[in-house]
Amino acid sequence: MANADFLNEINKRRTFAIISHPDAGKTTLTEKLLLFGGAIQVAGSVKGRKASRHATSDWMEMEQERGISITTSVMQFEHNEKLLNLLDTPGHEDFSEDTYRTLTAVDSALMVIDCAKGVEARTIKLMEVCRLRDTPIISFINKLDREGRDPLELIDEVESVLKIQCAPMTWPIGMGKRFKGVYHIYKDEVHVFSPTHGGKIATGEIFKGLDNPGLKELMGHDFEDFFEELELVREASTPFDIDAYLAGKQTPVFFGSAVNNFGVGELLDAFAEYAPAPQPRQAVEREVLPEEDKFSGFVFKVQANMDPAHRDRIAFMRICSGEYSQGMKINHVRIKKNIQVGNAITFQADSRKNVEQAFAGDIIGLHNHGTIQVGDTFTQGEALKFGGIPYFAPELFRKAVLKDPLRMKALQKGLTQLTEEGATQLFKPLRNNDLILGAVGVLQFEVTAQRLKSEYNVECVYDNAPITTARWVSCDDPKKFEEFKKKAHDSLAEDGGGYLVYLAKSRVNLSLTQERWPEITFSATREL
Ligand code: G4P
């Protein structure tokens, strides 16, 4: 490919994820974005997948749920000559680890906030992850067709709780029953709300300028209120600054109603215009630029395949530099092996298909028969290692107990391999031979037990483990660290990567230990 075409391919890519608290409207917004991008024809096709999201116990259902989420894991669509890769994550609470890792594979994010609820717990957590890499974020305050909180108050809350400056791009006129539309501050246009947009794209009426007599007539008294508020907003808020946005210090804010397909167009236009193209990636050895001609990428997620007949897994790889073409040979850096990739997959909203070509910024799916782990790097020969995929301290712990003691080796192997996927973590206490599993959500334990049975022929049950939380420990002073290790020996364990972890019986126990050992760093995340 000619150099200019190659650069153009990379520069037109926008790889992003949507972050939000459950129920804020992520799925609905995803669907509307796809609708705008022409990737789906009618609304409803994405939403449908949530029907089984509450399935908990039935293995097939879980399998299906995970499978379905694969097909919508990466959605590619075009808008205003940009090629957008939207990386989705299952809505299920238990898969939040996936969400965190997915954030390491994007260049920017969209944040959805419910106007009645404001900043919620999950959003705070996801924002912390975004902050690790200063990921640029565009915000969408959703559900303006319902009564919500005062928009100025919401902006204040985003600024103070999420510690990011807000730059309102649009401002709502009324709310709930009195919701009349949004005013685009920079285009000086009012987009009139019509709740009938429904499942297809429709552009509501647009008034240019605020001194439009027709507009005043249409809005009545609400317009006066809006006018006053707008003055306040103009005085109190900071203007949009693209550099501050790209540095992750400021978030442009849009208002709308995803379910009514309202305000989404403005959001998407701004996204295509301002969101960053594929960014350089830091490897341990050096920074890798997307436009380098040699291919490189890293795996941020491994997931079981939907097809139960094959039981292979899909490894999701973010391409960091260069170009993938069908049949090329790439080097699996960790195991120092070349592999030929003949059948990588890309994912569209409603189908999976083989890709012939993909560029930096794209995600491709590799068939994985157990040799690929989350965090693995692939290159065209150079020994690189991309870092930055965090492990999070689990909040739930179980001790794995074998039904047949003779199957211990198989259990160890199964657990080691399954926990390599990253959804559950394995801890081996220093003081005994227990196998402790940690997860963020309870469903993961069930999935692991089911998979141990079907894939490794090992039956295991769980005992409660008297552990509340875990912290990775480290210390600059080797002597002090040795002293700590001796004293805290009975509470220490090794994780799957051989790192030392403090398993705390309770929060109180953790804070007491932290107070007693100020020289020791207790970390709630571990970078891969
Ligand atoms: P999530 O993926 O973030 O969990 O949220 P999702 O899109 O599923 O939306 C959660 C609920 O909020 C859904 O209602 C959805 O229809 C509704 N919703 C999304 N956007 C808007 C909006 O702009 N205005 C209003 N009023 N509601 C909105 P549900 O009752 O849970 O599901 P459904 O039966 O409507 O599908």
Give the CATH superfamily of the largest domain: P-loop containing nucleotide triphosphate hydrolases
Spatial ordering of strands, largest sheet: 28-25-27-26-30-31-29-32
Cα separation of the termini: 34 Å
Give the bound compounds: guanosine-5',3'-tetraphosphate
InterPro entries: EF-G-like_DII, EFG_III/V, G_TR_CS, P-loop_NTPase, PrfC, RF3_C, RF3_dom_3_sf, RF3_GTP-bd
Protein name: Peptide chain release factor 3
Binding site for GTP: 20-27, 88-92, 142-145
GO molecular function: GTP binding; GTPase activity; guanosine tetraphosphate binding; translation release factor activity, codon nonspecific; translation release factor activity, codon specific
Q: Describe it for me?
A:
Residues 11-279 form the Tr-type G domain. Belongs to the TRAFAC class translation factor GTPase superfamily. Classic translation factor GTPase family. PrfC subfamily. GTP binds at residues 20-27, 88-92, 142-145. The protein is of the alpha+beta class. The chain folds into three domains: 14-274, Rossmann fold, CATH 3.40.50; 281-379, P-loop containing nucleotide triphosphate hydrolases (Rossmann fold, 3-Layer(aba) Sandwich); 393-527, Peptide chain release factor 3, domain III (Alpha-Beta Plaits, 2-Layer Sandwich), CATH 3.30.70. Helices cover 28% and strands 29% of the residues. The protein contains 14 helices and 33 strands. The strands form eight sheets. The protein has an eight-stranded antiparallel sheet. A seven-stranded mixed sheet has the order 2-3-1-4-5-11-6, with helices on both faces. It has a six-stranded antiparallel sheet with strand order 18-17-23-14-15-22. Strand 7 and strand 8 form a beta hairpin. Helix 11 crosses helix 12 (443-456). The radius of gyration is 25 Å and the shape is globular. It starts with a helix and ends with a strand. The model is unreliable at 47-60 and 66-71 (pLDDT under 50).
